[in-house]
Amino acid sequence: MHRLTGWALSTPATLAVVLFLILPVGATIAVTLTDPRGLLAPYEAFLNSRFRRTVLWRTMEIATVTTLAAVIIGFFTAYVVSRAPPRLKSILIILAVFPLLTGVVVRSFAWLILLGRNGLVNGTLIWLGITDTPIQMLYTQWSVILAMVYLFVPLMILVLVGVLETIPDDVIEAATSLGAPPGAVFRQVIFPLAVPGIIVGAVLVFTGAFTAYATPALLGGDRQMTMGTLLHQQAMVTLNWTSASTVAAIMVVVTVVVVLAMTRIARWLNPAAT
Amino acid sequence: MTRRIHPGLILFAILVYVFLMGPLVIVIGASLSDTTFLTFPPQGLSLRWFERIFEITAFRRTMLTSLQIAVLATTLALIIGIPAAYALNRYRIQLPLWLSTLFVLPILVPEIVLGFSLLRSVAVGQGLPIFSTLLIGHTLLVLPYCVRVISASLASFDFAVEEAAISLGSPPLKTFFTIVLPNVKSGVIAAFVLAFITSINDVSVSLFLTGPGISTLPIQLLAHMEQFFDPTVASVSVLLMVLTVAVMAVVEYTLGLSFLARKQE
User: Fold this and answer.
1) Is the pLDDT of residue A172 over 50?
2) Which residues of A touch B240 (CB under 8 A)?
3) Any CB–CB contact under 8 A between A38 and chain B?
4) Across residues B4-28, what is the average pLDDT?
5) How far is CA B263 from CA A89, B98, B111, B209, in A?
6) Do B26 and A113 touch (CB under 8 A)?
7) What superfamily in CATH does domain A38-273 come from?
8) pLDDT of residue B212
9) In this predicted model, which residue has the larger pLDDT, A127 or A203?
10) What is the ipTM of this complex?
11) Is the alpha carbon torsion for B127, B129, B131, B132 positive or negative?
């Protein structure tokens, strides 16, 4: 009886997810596996294209560098936030939530103003006499990475503050009073305890950066195409839906592999946590 | 109790916060500019670009669509999400574990893949109008937030109270609305505003689900930026930031913002 009520109450949401998420996404993947040219032919075509290989590689590179930078910046910042006095801590958390809840278009647009030919960065560089002519910063791989790091650092800070807060001060005191230098306390006490949080954050950042659209579209343009902008171009400009579905399927596979691999690593590094 | 932190680390954290806030401050500065092109620092202050937003029909129309979609999608997600969250907490032992994973699946599937797949299967395949498909996409986008936030509130609710009411003769449905729901009110409100802001800001799901006459504000902003480089986009951005502040105030008032720092786990 209880079992039935439970099922009945969760049925509408279950149906919605099955009908409008699992089936459509499944159909997109199925298209790439039932091509008349043969099994896996769309993937062969994808990998045979030098252009698309470059896009896949570039996206991997952008997502990896973004994740590493966000982890490093987020970890040290979150440590300071987690040890701040309560009032200051809540202000710092609010200041991290604000950009997170501000849309991706707004946050990428900010970098468009900053990095443009007549933008603030070029203006400052010319004023300082470092350069005479504006430097091309937009539509480079670095501008995309910079804006993505900007996008994901707040998320990393929030995830890690949640984890670092739970490390009692006593543990750190104990290590210090037993003679561990600050560097060793970081490496051998704080970092290992934060690993589960770092992995959760890294998965969110990597998959987010790998599948992003707005930031590479605005700051990378056609010159720095990524998987997200390639998917849009194949679907809406060249109208090659098989190719677009292949890009989508690769995104799903990469996301699933990253999530599974990171969960494995987390379990291996910290067997007690799971 | 606060431990001494290395001054170098504190300086680093300050620089990170300057990095986080700086660009947004510059957007605000640009929106007040008096010139027809984007420069910083702005030359002369004016509010003309805020007036200009409402003179551009495309912005007015897409703003309305975005608001409609956000309200409808959030409401739909709450209508199906609240019973699901209730079932997951109340009948935890009776229900399989994968069911709770199912409702966070939309987070795991890349949004852009969801948008493209809905275009292929639902809009083109089933011939559903674009507006309805867009609404479906946004409902799925915000469903995980609704289920998780309300689940978190229900986790601290003592179901013995509900059983007491029922055993005293109160009908189950009435008990839910008079006993359970009022106790998780703050969770429902927080879920509503968080889902609302997620929907308003979404690009990746909406990207493929726009058609003749139907587009959302972020998609229109992207299109506008490709053609013009004037401060209108900055003014719209400032309006969106004001909305963000309002959302944060509501979350702080209901669940407390520190809740968001724990949400991801």
Assistant:
1) yes
2) 102-103, 106
3) no
4) 92
5) 17, 20, 20, 29
6) yes
7) MetI-like (1.10.3720.10)
8) 79
9) A203
10) 0.93
11) negative
